[in-house]
Prior knowledge:
13 strands; 9 helices; 5-stranded mixed β-sheet; 3-stranded antiparallel β-sheet; 3 domains
Amino acid sequence: MDIGSISTKGVILGESGCPLAHTYLLTEGDPIRATLRLLGRLRRQLPGGAQIGAVGTTGSARRLVGAMLEADAVKNEITAHAVGTLSRRPEVRTIFEIGGQDSKIILLEDGVVTDYAMNTLCAAGTGAFLTAQAGRLGLTVEEMGELALTSATPARIAARCTVFAESDLIHKAQAGHSKADLAAGLCEAVVVNYLSNVGKGKKITPPVIFQGGVSRNPGVVEAFRRALGCEIQVAPQGALMGAIGTALLAAKGTKRARPFPFDLTKKTYGTRVDTCHNCPNHCEIMRFYCDGKEIDHWGNRCEGPGEKAVLA
């Protein structure tokens, strides 16, 4: 499973590595509930008699859901996306991944990650930004992408900051720019932001694979192609690459001895945040409970036994 801030993705791979079941839904700020919903959908797709041999999680809620599912592998997004993409496109040299709230670039050589970067504080080049700006134009994201392809003169939209981009969009609209030119300008702004921040100083070498939710916007794909002067391949299962990668990584370990807990709806999950006062760092320790029993905790930034310190 790949549990992100905007969407949660799940896939079950057969022994050959081909998907037997997969699904995609919105996280809606509640990764626990999203996981329960996703498991129900996967279970309904799974062939009768199939057994789960290993479980992996990735994404921003990987630790939380990993504890919930008793995961055999909990992997970071860079590793999971690289492994997933290489399993489908072994020739890839550069991976662009733009999701709802974050974006990343992964550079590979001979099937090995040589460099990577992720966005930090600003979401100006992500799916959430495009969704918000499309709404200002009275369009869905899908409509905006198609409309952008019809523009011959994209409007120049400030790309460095979400607030500046919104202000610039309003100004350009009031100045008389068409919706098509504004849509194309927004797509170009995403690309400029990505290349000047996430891709800054990186040597982008074809073949380039573009994945994540924003890869389904043809206007952004075309803007990347014009900016780089090379083909931009869109992964058919791009939204699932993180989930596929972590499943493959989990499968490399020891085969799971215990049955996979598909029906978790009978259990009660909860979290509690405690502050450790053992040193001036005042680390926030997240405690995760199942049926009232603590099953995992994390958040300590200190060396040594800080997580076991007296908590207030």
